[in-house]
Amino acid sequence: MVPIIVSVAIVLFVPLIWGIAIYNGLVRGRVRAENGFSQIDVQLKRRCDLIPNLVEAVKGYMSHERQTLEAVIAARNSAVAGLQSLGARPRDAMTIQTVAGASGQLDQLLMSLRVSIEKYPDLKASTNVLGLQEELASTENRIAFSRQAYNDAVMVFNTSIAVFPSNFVAALLGFSELTLFEANATDRVLPEVKF
Q: Buried (b) or exposed (e) across 88-103, using 16+ Cβ within 10 A?
């Protein structure tokens, strides 16, 4: 009688424990990916906060480059709006793509601003501008690292919900793929640098 009870217990509890282990792994993967996206969000907000300071420091020197400065501010405002909409829908694929697009546009305009700064030796030597440029470059590196970390976490999570046998648990419990943070087509175009 005891061997039968032990056999029944093993048959019932092993799949249950297996299912719980897979579920916990999926939850950990999703949380890791969400944390990765939060890190992107933090760095994008940091960049958006630095841009007005950089533009103000540059304005006096570059009054005739007003169009570039206004485009940077407009792109920054678009990125801030995207980040705010992301707070309401953090897992929405369209929102992630919108934020990625706004971020890419801002990347291109900041490159134009850096090229413009290089044209002005007095501005380039200004300690305020140098400090802000250094902060911005550091932030860009952090953004790139955060994007990579997020995409790595999403790749691991998406793989775990696609492979056997965890795909059964994922489908049963409603886990779905997360969206990668990808550059859009315009972000892949090399910026034109003119002097």
A: eeeeeeebbbbbbbbb
